Structures are given as C-alpha cells and as structure tokens.
Amino acid sequence: MEDKKILIEELFEKAIAYGETSIELVKLKVVDKSSSLISSIISRLILLLVFLMFLVIFSIGISLWIGELMGEIYYGFMVVAAFYLFLALLLILIHTSIKRKLVNAIITLLTHQHAKHQ
C-alpha cells in the first residue's frame, strides 16, 4: 500500500514538472516568435524610411528638371503631383486584389511556419 502511495506521489511530481516545463516551453516559443516579428517589423520600417527618403529627394529632383524643361519650376511639381495622383487612383482601383494577395501570402507563411515548428 505504501509503495502505491509513493508511486502515485512520484507520478504526481513528474506530472507537475512536465506541466511546468511545458509552460516554460510555450513562454520561450512566444518570446521567440515575438522577437522575430518585432525585429522583422523594425528592419522593414528602416528600409521603408530609407526608400521614402530616396523617393522624396528623387521626386524633388525630377520636379525641378521637368520644371526647367517646361520653362517654370512649378510646372514640374504639378506634373509630378499629377503622376502621384494617377498612381494613387490606380492603387485604389486594384486595392481589393492587392489585399487578397497579401492575405493569402500571410496565411501561407503562417501555415508553413506552424508546420515547420511542429
């Protein structure tokens, strides 16, 4: 009888240790995923910032050049602004298509990541 009690106590202690280890593993996986996500977001934001700086400076240069060709500097800025307006309208028209492709890509990425870690 005493042996059964000791075996049950050992089994119970091992179950508690297993539970604690499982919780710790989940915590570590969450830290890994969130640190990976945050580092990815930060690096992409830095790249976006650098690209936007390039785009602004390039747009100013193109505006000045076109304005010089047209005889008045502000004409160049109007042409570049009209180009960006056209681009914005085009993006508005194809917004749902872009959104659907992004959602599908995210789902595919998450399902592959999930399958890879199991």
Short structural description:
The chain is mainly alpha-helical. It is 96% helix and 0% strand.
Model description:
This protein is mostly helical and 118 residues long. The chain contains three helices and no strands. The longest helix is centred in the first third of the chain and has 69 residues, at 2-70. It starts with a helix and ends with a helix. The mean pLDDT is 89.
Give the biggest sheet.
Answer: none
| Molecular shape | rod-shaped
The tally of helices reads: 3
**Strand content bin:** under 5%
Our Rg estimate from Cα atoms comes to 29 Å
Helix content: over 70%
Helix vs. strand class? mainly alpha
Query: How far apart are the termini?
Result: 41 Å
Mean pLDDT: 89
Q: Give the beta-strand count.
A: 0
Instruction: Provide the low-confidence segments as ranges.
Output: none
The helix-strand sequence is: HHH
Helix and strand layout, with pairings?
Elements: H1 2-70, H2 73-93, H3 95-117
Helix pairs in contact: 1-2
Q: What would the keywords be for this entry?
A:
single chain, 118 residues, mainly alpha, 3 helices, rod-shaped
